[in-house]
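Protein Record: Sequence and Backbone Structure Tokens
======================================================
Tokens: labelled as protein backbone structure tokens, with as many entries as the chain has residues.
Question of interest: how does this chain fold, as expressed in backbone structure tokens?

___
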Amino acid sequence: MKATEQTKPEAGLAVRLPDGRLAPLVIGPRDWKDLIGDNRDEHSIRTDCENGVLPCLPRAGVSGSHWRICTAKALEALGVRVEIVAASS
């Protein structure tokens, strides 16, 4: 994951990865791509969201709303053990 302001957890809880990094509870396709090192384009990741391959929250009912991927569930589906912790941990 790139150390950008967008990928730093801002809420009270975060997902702790096995290497100690913290990730937000919910991320978009671009951040998911950076988190797992996926070399596909964002449209392929969005297609995974549409087809139920990635666990996502429902999209907002407005035009242009983005997919919101449930970080912990998606990583656990890949076999990555994560822990939900306080974001300040």
Q: What stands out?
A: The CA atoms of residues 56 and 69 lie 4 Å apart. The radius of gyration is 13 Å. The longest strand covers residues 13-16.
